[in-house]
Amino acid sequence: MNVPRTYLIAAIAALLPASAEIALSDSPANSIKVATGLHPASDPSNVAGWVLRDDISDEFEGDKIDSSKWFVEGENGDYYIWKGRAPSQFAPHNVIVEDGKLKIRSQWEPDFEFAKDEGHEGNTYRTHEGKDFPVTTGGVVSRKRFLNGYMEVKSKPGNSAMTAAFWAIGYESELDIYEQMGNPNDGDDIKADSTKMSVHDWQPPAQRPTRKFGYKKKLPYRVADDFHVFGCEWGEDYLKCFIDGELVYETTQEAEGQNWVLTNPLEIWLDSEIFVWLGLPSKEELPTDFEVEYMRVWQKPQANLLDRAFFGFEGPILFQQNPRPLDLVPESSKGNDYQKFWRIDEAAAKHFSIVRHEKFASGTRSLKFTTSGELSSDAVSVEGPGGSVELGAGDYELSVNIWVDPNSTLQSVRLSLADPLVSLPTIDLTACAKGEWVTVKQSFTLDQPTADPCRLTIAIDRDDVPAGNNLLYIDDIVITHSEL
Description:
The protein is mainly beta. It contains two helices and 36 strands. The chain has helices at about 5-15, 255; strands at about 20-25, 30-35, 50-55, 70, 90, 95-100, 100-110, 120, 125, 125-130, 130, 135, 140-145, 150-155, 165-170, 175-180, 195-200, 210-220, 230-235, 240-245, 245-250, 265-270, 290-300, 315-320, 340, 345, 350-355, 365-370, 380-385, 395-405, 410-420, 420-425, 425-430, 435-445, 455-460, 470-480. The strands form seven sheets. Strands 1, 2, 3, 5, 6, 7, 12, 14, 19, 20, 21 and 23 form a twelve-stranded mixed β-sheet that branches. Strands 4-13-22-15-16-17-18 form a seven-stranded antiparallel β-sheet, with no helix packed on it. β10 (about 125-130) and β11 (about 130) form a beta hairpin. The chain is elongated, with a radius of gyration of 24 Å.
């Protein structure tokens, strides 16, 4: 039986010793290394079947940061997205690995060469309200993004008015698992004995305030006094936050409504900043270190052989073997070698569009098809980028969620794999119940592996569109091995 390794990995891992490692591939773009023996603090017996992502997780052993896992802000003069929150600036020498910990240092450093005439929100680097303020700090960003899972750190902020942040960003979204400060000296947003979680919406025009929901919690201790474990379980339609293994906050997509934006893969950030609204650190309290003993990410095995976010029409597909552009901000919908989008040409755009908060089976978006009268050409189609599908020879099941308007007379939708052309089973819309989401499943066989690069195309032919008003939504295209 040709069963995907992602489906079997949890069972295999349970049989191996704690030191064992196994490798698997979960998509054309990612090679995933999995280690066993470490479980979330929220689920120490691993009842949920979590699998550790070793390629993203880090125990911070050795004497330097693992550059295969982390991008260091400012290293070799390169900055990703920004140079830090002014007046402080990221400096690569402030990212230190020693004593089994990552230490992100903040220090008073007048000899550092700050960026000139750059900044944001009324501040320039090194300058605040016209006064010299030469504070450097540091930040690291995970090389890889991931969709849904459980992320956890054991950490301690520095005892100063510098933030310690464990957060994540992706396409049009941001999840701040925590923002903490060891010794704030102004304001009520963050206290020395509190933690703050936030979810931000970076959909264009991405204007502040972007915070949509979250929580603040008073703690029975000062965060800078000792290490504590902070975790976040991020599901398709829920969030749960944990401190030292205990649930402290939870919410759902249903509860948050249109504020729910966490539908695309995220990358992890660990950094320190100045929040001017909480007061500036004094020269005397620096240097100080934000310390992280470990950062771990777990996920659950998936049988789906396609990229779940992309084929659910939520956002781009990521080709993470290619470099991530340094200017790739969350609100960017520009295609490049790292992120690619569905192609809808001029003729197809008269009928096809990706829409948000209209009809969707999961997430927040779906592919919409409309006509008013005849189709504008013999056929219209949308297609994914080359390399977005990779299947071996074998038997498969195709699953698609369909919503057909009660007044529509559309007859069918045609799916195919390109390079070379492989026609998949046609979806008969006349057999679908109307006015509700229906999951259509079809079996197909590939006699040989898909060529590289391969893409999926969704097409509707003129002969299948009787004149009149028609409305169709498509969501959640899934391919699994038929044995499952």
